[in-house]
Amino acid sequence: xxxxxxxxxxxxxxxxxxxxxxxxxxxxxxxxxxxxxxxxxxxxxxxxxxxxxxxxxxxxxxxxxxxxxxxxxxxxxxxxxxxxxxxxxxxxxxxxxxxxxxxxxxxxxxxxxxxxxxxxxxxxxxxxxxxxxxxxxxxxxxxxxxxxxxxxxxxxxxxxxxxxxxxxxxxxxxxxxxxxxxxxxxxxxxxxxxxxxxxxxxxxxxxxxxxxxxxxxxxxxxxxxxxxxxxxxxxxxxxxxxxxxxxxxxxxxxxxxxxxxxxxxxxxxxxxxxxxxxxxxxxxxxxxxxxxxxxxxxxxxxxxxxxxxxxxxxxxxxxxxxxxxxxxxxxxxxxxxxxxxxxxxxxxxxxxxxxxxxxxxxxxxxxxxxxxxxxxxxxxxxxxxxxxxxxxxxxxxxxxxxxxxxxxxxxxxxxxxxxxxxxxxxxxxxxxxxxxxxxxxxxxxxxxxxx
Length: 451
What we know:
The chain is mostly beta strands. It is 7% helix and 39% strand. The strands form eight sheets. Strands 1-32-31-30 form a four-stranded antiparallel β-sheet.
């Protein structure tokens, strides 16, 4: 009989292989190759969990200590940036067109840009148009060929060759291809449809997108040609979440997404692509399942405001989904971060819960509805919210019983800080929904403080 430890080693090896297949990597812009630990190649960073293998570079006093390294304008949108080597890629909208930008991370100057015709909202969108406009989905980068994948609010799924100044490789519009209807009313309140918001996920030779069509909630397309490869068994309409979350369940590679009705876990293994491994009911008024599910092993943390107003831990096995705990604390937008036995998120306050039990540990700070956060290698939390409040706080590893704020820079922007904050190679990138972007060099800031 095979030992339990051998099973665990096998599952660990499969998990590592799965991570390698889903990771997008690059050494230098235009030069596909192996991953740099400092890169941020897709939604939520290199490990897709909001945890970075970089220090906050905090040594007491003000933080950051210096002015921004540079500022730039990349037009309207909630799309978070990604960083590969010395290139930053992001999206913005202006005057009836989407723009794809490649910026130099040292200077903020535009290296190249591409553009195409696009409305500021999805063609069947409804509601809250004073709060957003332009692209919301984060780009994804493929190390094997230097291709960049983007998704507009109006369903333009496109592939760009970064080795050729962003030359378009292929394009398809999801509304045109599948006649995707407006999202239905769910919950007790009126219809909301924000168009396409969910970042594409690269897996193997495919790019996976939450389409939300009656043919399938998820669809996978060839990374090289854009041809459709498979559709999911689930036919739920799309949710409004930030991204898809890969995981391995008892050796089976899967992907998790919050649809408009469920936490869906679909299989990705050959011959079973798109089959539903598990579903857990989760319906939110306005279809606002915005915060991306966060994965640790076979556990998934989900959180939504409105009629749910709760955060839950759901464990997934081949037998289905089981709720481990549910607590009356919510994240409206910020994806939770699981770190050293704790769950963190920033939504009106910075929260810390015990991962095993869901017990609240502490809450503190003044934040608005717009917020994102990451955890650094020196056990600190960087939060970005309101209209440009940049905050550094201790994790529970350093401050076990109370919220401890170390530094705060206020009102750095003039509009909502919807786009997710990014830390890559010691540089912190902050953006608002108007497209104003600031870059802080934390390493240079720290060196100035050293005697």
